[in-house]
Design a protein that fits this description.
Elements lengths: L1 H46 L3 H5 L13 H9 L2 H32 L3 H15 L6 H9 L6 H6 L10 H8 L6 H13 L3 H9 L4 H9 L4 H17 L2 H6 L6 H4 L15 H35 L9 H12 L1 H6 L9
Length: 344
């Protein structure tokens, strides 16, 4: 009888602990969702406010006289369509290049054994740790007076000025030193370490070489992580302001164009700093619209790629999926500290 009561008490205690742990975890996640999402709800609401709503202290989140004038003003004055095209070009080329270069580097580091592979992986981690501001001036000078071992200057008598072109970000992406490339190589390496070696051994028995095995066997099973890296690379490049200010002075980019709202012509004779701030956030909302659309299309592969990359552990799939959603959502990417472009 006593043993039965003890078993019941142990079962109740276990269920109570599980319930308490679940309440704590989901409560913290709910708080995190609120902290991330609420500022954007407030900004979206403010972007539709008319001048009268801005002056009315009783208006909180729901405008009484909603208007699209703020969007029209920003679009017409910052060259939105031109900047959108420039950002699509730079971000698209950089993201594609980073995805395939980081995939090749990650696959090599996952399969190679020995001290040399460990040393290379250590150097990859170092590129994640070192702030890019440390090499800002050398990077600018390298592409302002671009040369290859002095050969261009030797044959032409001059160097190449690559500033205000897509060449700097393209070259950095193709050489594995683009924005966040160290992180992407690490993620790819973690994913490829989980690919069964039996697949590659079977391909070798069938007469496939290393590159054919990589292209025909490994890449097709890596679609989720490839899409994940592409979306992250595209999003971070899209919202980046560090490299944009280093390499682009007159090249139209949305990450820089949205800050032109500070110099927009007066919308009203009673223009205030609050109104200018609302225009700034209206421009930011316009800038992240493509990211929201991209995430809406590819969110299934994005979360799957993060889960299968080996960096979130095992179990609690629902919690990890929610964390992946928060960490990879375009709204989070434009607000989250730790990146070079901080819109909010």
């Amino acid at each position: 009888m006593k043993s039965a009561n003890a078993a019941v008490k142990a079962s109740v205690l276990k269920k109570t602990k599980t319930l308490a742990r679940g309440i704590l975890i989901y409560g913290l996640l709910g708080l995190l969702v609120y902290v991330i999402i609420f500022p954007f709800i407030a900004k979206i609401s403010a972007s539709f406010m008319s001048w009268n709503d801005m002056q009315d202290r009783t208006v909180a989140l729901i405008p009484r006289e909603p208007t699209l004038d703020n969007y029209r003003l920003v679009i017409s004055n910052i060259g939105y369509h031109v900047a959108l095209g420039g950002s699509l070009l730079v971000s698209g080329i950089s993201a594609v290049a980073q995805t395939f270069i980081c995939a090749m580097a990650g696959y090599a580091l996952a399969k190679l054994k020995g001290k040399l592979a460990n040393l290379v992986m250590f150097l990859v981690v170092v590129t994640i740790v070192i702030p890019p501001q440390v090499i800002m001036i050398p990077l600018f000078l390298k592409f302002r007076f671009f040369d290859v071992l002095g050969l261009i200057n030797l044959f032409t008598g001059n160097t190449i000025n690559m500033i205000d072109s897509i060449a700097p970000m393209t070259i950095l992406s193709l050489t594995g030193y683009g924005l966040k490339n160290g992180l992407f190589i690490f993620v790819m390496r973690q994913f490829f370490k989980g690919v069964p070696e039996e697949l590659e051994e079977a391909a070798l028995i069938d007469g496939y070489g290393i590159f054919r095995t990589y292209l025909k066997i490994v890449l097709p099973v890596s679609i989720p992580i490839l899409i994940t890296v592409f979306i992250l690379a595209f999003s971070w490049q899209w919202t980046d302001t560090f490299y944009s200010n280093v390499f682009f002075n007159r090249f139209p980019l949305l990450a820089r164009a949205v800050f032109m709202t500070h110099w927009l012509p007066p919308f009203s004779p009673h223009e205030t700093a609050y109104f200018t701030n609302i225009l700034l956030h209206t421009g930011v909302l316009l800038a992240i619209v493509p990211l929201v659309a991209l995430f809406a299309v590819a969110q299934k592969w994005l979360v799957t790629g993060i889960e299968r990359s080996g960096i979130v552990g095992e179990g609690r799939d629902d919690v990890y999926a929610l964390l992946c959603f928060l960490m990879c959502h375009p709204l989070t990417l434009t607000w989250m500290p730790g990146k070079h472009g901080l819109f909010f």
